[in-house]
Amino acid sequence: MPAANDIRKGQVIKFNGEPHLVMETQHRTPGNLRAFVQVKMRNLRYGKALDQRFASTDTIEVLPTEKKSLEFSYADREAFAFIDPDTFEQIELSAQLLGDSKNYLTAGGKVDVLFVDEKPLTLELPSTVALKVVESSDGIKGDTASNVQKPAKLETGLMVQVPLFIKEGEIIKVSTADGSYLGRV
Fold first, then answer.
1. pTM for the model
2. Domain range for residue 15?
3. Cα–Cα dist 125/110, whole Å
4. Among 46, 72, 104, 168, which residue's Cβ finds the most Cβ atoms within 10 Å?
């Protein structure tokens, strides 16, 4: 097993029995004290970030990872099916694993899935997705004061605030980071 000095950004390590993604590392040698490695990491099961200090001689278990680009196929209750476009293998992920990411999935949409020890662990969406507006009220004529917005329901069930000129059936671009309206497609 590698020493704490060998930890690099982007690696997945086992800490307290859970997989953690390393986001930042700093090697420090303060004054006449022993050297240590300060690691900022995120728990891949729960999403919680934490800072941890390791002695530079501590051994750390690095987990083997693989990132696959998958295509969303369909949703069936609490299971979401994805297809590997290379091998045509179907992989099902639970709604609990996807979290809020399920609001941005459309048939044929591509996502990156991080596998640790052959098990899917996290899902990475593109920064923006194009979604169709399925329900939106009409704007009130004359209500054109600065940046007035109205709620709109999208094809995945996500509710987004959009400008008054957006109508049902239009396709809009939505940010996957915060679910905000970015523009028409």
1. 0.68
2. 4-62
3. 8
4. 104
H or E element, residue 97: helix 95-98
Neighbouring residues of 95: CB distance < 8 A, sequence distance ≥ 6: 78, 79, 80, 102
Domain count, the chain: 3
pLDDT at 173: 92
Across the chain, what does the average pLDDT equal? 85
Residue 15 exposed, middle or buried by CB count within 10 Å (0-12, 13-18, 19+): middle
Are residue 73 and residue 117 in the same domain, yes or no?
yes
What's the rounded mean pLDDT across residues 141-146?
63
What CATH number is attached to the domain comprising 135? 2.40.50.140
Secondary structure (H, E, C), 48-59: CEEEEEEECCCE
Indicate the pLDDT class of residue 6, thresholds 50, 70 and 90: confident
pLDDT tens digits, 166-175 = 888 899 999 8
Which CATH number belongs to the domain containing residue 47 in this structure? 2.30.30.30
